[in-house]
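Kindly review these tokens for lecture notes.

. . .
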Amino acid sequence: MTKQLKSTEARLEECLPPATELPTVLHRAMRYAVLCGGKRVRPLLAFAAAEIAHADIERATWVGVAVELIHAYSLVHDDLPCMDDDVLRRGMPTCHVKYGEAMALLVGDALQSLAFNVLSERCVAEDAATQLEMVSLLAQASGSYGMAGGQAIDLSAVGLRLNAVDLEQMHSRKTGAMIRCAVALGARCSQQLSLTELTLLDDYARIIGLAFQVIDDVLDEEAPTSILGKTAGKDAKQGKPTYVSALGLSGARTLAENLLDQGLAILEYFDESANNLRRLATYVVKRTY
């Protein structure tokens, strides 16, 4: 999906304010937070879902950009001292380390606003009603019933031992909500999919979102900082409940493989147009960082 990655990077570069425009420090920090690497899994999922719907590639690009901007904002805030207090992100100093805590807070605020601006002003759907639904889906996935709510549960769970069921409840919001949103938005870039197909894609995204977090927990335990691009072993040191603490490394790996099998089984309903969704599911579970 090299072409899709290049398209995403180009559109991210295009929509972010120039670093030379006032307020220059804020704009430089926004660009730093977004353009300094990243796997771009969420935009790629949006592209792959749009392929099943035979949607216009430009629409899928802007949908992916909006989701990635939300994701970037969440990382900036997640790294703050009042949250996870991390100093590394993508192998570089975190935004608050480089630009200060106050500026990092503003970066997150500005990126969130920019995401909704992108999704509302670009033509990403067949009609206004569908586009409004897409804006609402992004808002729900970002808010207290989605990503922000998951982070709140995560903060309150420090020092506790949660079982796999409790962890799924937390991570279905913190990590899974935006992954499900990326697939949902990509699938709605055209009106060619039935309610059954949209439901199957949502089931796939829910499962892959969970698998993503399981592997994140495994890599936090196994991979070195130099590979992860962020501080390794941080969750254990902070007393955060993880799939590794609940199931052990072997159990967490087994869970991830089972989730991959479930996700691929759902995609059997679709033809070769779902091949990129299949590849992404495999990548999520087999990745090394």
The chain has a mean pLDDT of 95. Residues 30 and 107 are 5 Å apart (CA to CA).
